[in-house]
Design brief:
Largest sheet: 21 strands, antiparallel
Oligomer: single chain
Structural class: alpha+beta
Number of helices: 24
Radius of gyration: 28 Å
Length: about 600
């Protein structure tokens, strides 16, 4: 029988507590109060799962050649849950079928005591499974000595279980399951069941701003939304803690009280895109403290000439370095005293290294910062190499500065060697390992060898007019050969140009502070090769000897191996993202393209 992706997605969604409501009832955001400082909701669980099956990952998982492997993973989960199923009489499939509409979770600030947690779950027309679950829960709790109380509120029955791990209030009202650690929250929810409350979360300007700015490119509503009011949440959590008032009093000093809200959305299988994601950070104006240091400018969308075509991730942003440094200096001096930042830098950096940090480094930065990631063959756990670069104004000055820093710090000078490779001049860490004693047990020897193999080999130096830091020399050499030769560059790649055009269309006239590009198939290729690597098989095999889960996993993977990588990669397409800095704060939007597999 063909196994569908739906059960696995249902398991994931249930763990995440997603949500959305039926037309007969207002959605949860209109029922909970504006004292809700954390909220997560998917509009309709079955619809969301159906949309997920239309995405690249869903199509790949349901590909006939992938079905045996996916079925094997599902069987491993089933085998692991077999004992629990037998004891409870409830099958895993039945549990995953419970959400039939909105599934939401929120954390509510209370006047006294701990925050209230509330969960909404639309059950559809059949409530028999959840009734069995609740009955089983009551039985287990009762056998454990818990007190079980029943009460009525607004024609709804509430069951309160007072157990060793705290109270749990349960209510099934109009085929919706309500769960909370505070009975007051359940009663407040029932009090405003019609959704006509004036102080609802949906009416809060912060929440509505995030929701309205997190729709699809053609105004498609979000299938999943999330929201956090960090200041109210921190105030609620720390109000009964020692030092809580100190923490809250220090936030304005840092300017962090200017973070009004954070939230976003996820939208799957739209007309133009495979997936769309939003992240919005709502900020007070004027920005102060740490927030003022986020001084972004229009980002150049043209990749540097040294960026290889086969990178897995590329991100670039432009900063007003002078403004950011000035905000840092103002913040530091406001806490420790006038002129203190300059004084401490002079004492801790300038006098030790013989450089002028502000003049030679900060003032030499142009403001463009770039991150590049690339998978260095062969596939292994640490195959991903990272290269971070900052554009500079004067390479000769920066080279002299780096040389003086290394020469003035004997402990650094002893562990690095200076190298030249093409246009790149850089220092590479070169720490010799002591021999592993012959009498070391074999398992410990393998652990030591693995740790050494995973250890990075940091490098820092210059290429072109960029100062860079990298975690290994392999990516430095790869970047340098691209810069000095005729190897394919990202700027010439057609998929990058297509993503860039989509990003520019979406940005319009707004100031773009950051641009990124990713190739998910390359990231997945490393995972794919790692899963099939002998080291992974040995890892599972060693644990299978004493762990039933790994024993089942090993058997199912051996019986249902992964197909060729192109079975999966044919569904994957590049993705991109931009960050916009506007009057409400910072807004990130990312999307992945659709690939035609017909």
């Amino acid at each position: 029988m063909k196994f569908r992706l739906t059960p696995l997605l249902g398991l994931l969604l249930s763990a995440m507590l997603v949500s959305s409501g039926w037309a007969e009832r207002p959605n949860a955001a209109r029922i909970v109060s504006d004292q809700t400082f954390a909220f997560l909701r998917v509009a309709n669980t079955p619809d969301f799962i159906a949309k997920m099956e239309q995405t690249a990952i869903g199509k790949a998982a349901n590909d006939p050649q992938m079905q045996p492997f996916v079925s094997g993973i599902w069987q491993t989960l089933k085998q692991s849950a077999a004992n629990a199923e037998e004891r409870s009489g409830i099958k895993l499939e039945e549990l995953l079928s419970i959400p039939q509409g909105e599934l939401a979770a929120g954390m509510v600030a209370m006047q006294e005591g701990n925050p209230g947690v509330v969960i909404f779950c639309d059950l559809g027309e059949d409530t028999r499974v959840i009734e069995r679950v609740v009955s089983l829960l009551e039985t287990v709790a009762g056998n454990d000595g818990a007190l079980i109380e029943r009460s009525e509120f607004k024609d709804a029955e509430i069951t309160l279980i007072r157990g060793n791990n705290g109270p749990l209030a349960i209510c099934i009202h109009e085929n919706v399951l309500l769960l909370s650690n505070r009975i007051e929250v359940v009663e407040d929810t029932l009090e405003h069941w019609s959704g006509d409350r004036e102080d609802s979360l949906a009416s809060d300007d912060r929440f509505s701003t995030i929701v309205s700015s997190s729709r699809g490119t053609k105004d498609e509503p979000a299938q999943l939304i999330w929201y956090i009011n960090p200041i109210d949440g921190l105030r609620t959590i720390t109000k009964n803690q020692s030092g809580g008032s100190y923490v809250m009093g220090f936030l304005p000093v840092l300017g962090l009280d200017g973070v009004k809200a954070i939230g976003g959305s996820y939208i799957a299988a739209t007309e133009d895109f495979d997936t769309i994601g939003h992240l919005h950070i709502m900020l007070e104006r004027p920005r102060t403290g740490v927030i003022e240091m986020i001084a972004l400018k229009n980002a150049s969308t043209e990749p540097e000439g040294w960026v290889p075509e086969d990178v897995t991730n590329y991100m670039t942003s432009n900063w007003d370095v002078e403004k950011s440094y000035g905000a840092l200096e103002n913040l530091y001096d406001s806490i420790f005293g006038d002129g203190k930042l300059a004084e401490d830098i002079d004492r801790r950096i300038n006098q030790r290294t013989g450089i002028d940090f502000k003049t030679e480094i900060i003032d030499n930065l142009e403001g463009k910062f770039t991150l590049v990631q690339w998978y260095e063959p062969p596939a292994r756990i640490n195959s991903q190499a990272t290269f971070v670069a900052a554009k500079i104004k004067d390479r000769a000055m920066m080279q002299k500065t780096l040389d003086r820093i290394v020469e003035s710090l004997p402990r650094l000078n002893d562990v690095v060697e200076k190298r030249n490779f093409g246009d790149a001049t850089f220092y590479q860490a070169n720490v010799a390992d002591a021999p592993i004693p012959e009498d070391v047990p074999e398992d410990r020897r393998r652990r030591m060898e693995n740790r050494r193999a995973l250890r990075p080999t940091p490098c820092f130096g210059l290429i072109g007019d960029y100062l860079f830091f990298a975690d290994r020399p392999g990516i430095v050499e790869h970047v340098t050969m691209t810069y000095g030769g005729d190897a394919p560059r990202l700027a010439e790649d057609l998929s990058f140009k297509l993503v860039l055009n989509k990003l520019q269309d979406h940005a319009g006239e707004r100031k773009v502070a950051m641009v990124s590009f990713a190739r998910p198939e390359e990231s997945l290729r490393m995972v794919y090769e790692l899963v099939q690597a002998e080291s992974t098989k040995n890892f599972i095999g060693q644990r299978a000897e004493r762990n039933d889960f790994f024993k089942n996993l090993q058997g199912n993977l051996d019986a249902n191996p992964l197909p060729d990588f192109n079975v999966i990669s044919q569904y994957l397409a590049p993705s991109g993202a931009i960050m916009v800095d506007d009057e409400t704060g910072l807004h990130w939007i990312g999307f992945s393209l659709k690939r035609d597999t017909e």
